[in-house]
Design brief:
- The chain is α+β, with helices and mostly antiparallel strands.
- The protein contains eleven helices and 19 strands.
- The strands form four sheets. Strands 1, 2, 3, 4, 7 and 8 form a six-stranded antiparallel sheet that branches. Strands 10, 11, 12, 13, 16 and 17 form a six-stranded mixed sheet that branches. It has a five-stranded antiparallel sheet with strand order 9-19-18-14-15, with helices on one face.
- It starts with 7 loop residues before the first helix and ends with a strand.
Length: 408
Amino acid sequence: MNGPGIDYHAVFQALPGAVALLTPSLVYADVNEAFLSVCGRTREQLIGRYLFDVFPDNPDDPAATGTHNLRLSLERVLATGEPDTMALQRYDVESPDRPGQWLKRYWSPVNAPVLAPDGTVALLLHRVEEVTELIHARGARSDTDRARALESELYTRARELQEVNERLRLAHAREREVALHLQEAMLPAPRPLGHHHAAVRYRPATGALNVCGDWYDLVDLPGRTAVAVGDVVGHGLRAAGVMGLLRSALSAASRVADGPARALEVLDLYSRDVAGAESTTAVSVVIDWDGHVLTYSSAGHPPPVLCHADGTVEFLDRATDPPLGARPEPSPRPQARLPFTDGAVLALFTDGLVERRREDIDTGLHRLADALARHRAAPPEALADTLLDELTPPTGITDDTALILLRL
């Protein structure tokens, strides 16, 4: 028995739908009784065998696409860890009693991941519903020609839907690639900050077709450095374009404003004329190297973290205001100061680093603080990689992530 008195293997075998479990290499690991019944095979003919060795395409049908479409769907599930519902498929099956004779069959497949405790895809759940009899039954109500026409039309429309879905996936993938290149061009590596060391990282969400509008910026000023990160609401090229406009505007404002609060006020005013900039979050920190003081202001963004040389951690959370454009009229923003000593580490980041589904963001913030304190002695470049490795869940980050680390 598994769990509280439930035999899940018995449940699996009793499922009324036809279900098979495949390994990531597409080998049959288990099948239920309904699957054996619908495919006309024995357990010995399936378990331990490669899916497409058991069910290849009909060699007499040069237009057959069943194996191709099914393989693409299963590979998508492996890559994304998300279920994939396929359009109606014609997938002929060789008669188990008469080798060489192929039976015309129609199927409605759904593929889903079975996740291991570490979040990786351990198995693929392949559920199929045969709809051959449904198509034939609908056609039997009229003459034979009409039945064949209905069958052909239904199958043709299903294939058209599959092709449209594939074109959409390719279009999204191309847009994502363009947006990533745009972001990379707008987010260059930081220039040397004298004897101070900084590391920056940008990571797109794992498995997502769209990228978001996360950005970072470092502005070197006489005796000071202005550091900022921000996050535009939305996805794709539009968000990446808005990100570029806001990053450039804040970078310019930071060079002339008398502090981070004033720089964010200017950015707020500018953002009201930029479509898609609504509710953008950003935080700016000005580092006074001689005075050993951080001055900061936040527009609805997760607070930066300062880890002192002795391992104590402070959140820069005493000057937080609403996101850009959230108020009817621009207004003065708060600003706070925090002293630091040599050897401290400052981390600015976007929410993809700390947010998890069904988890309070404070949990993620304290997880970051703990990791930063434990690895604070590492050089910034190594520390950045360590934080990303340690804070990224096994299934990958679900939102884009920007990270800046500075050794003070």
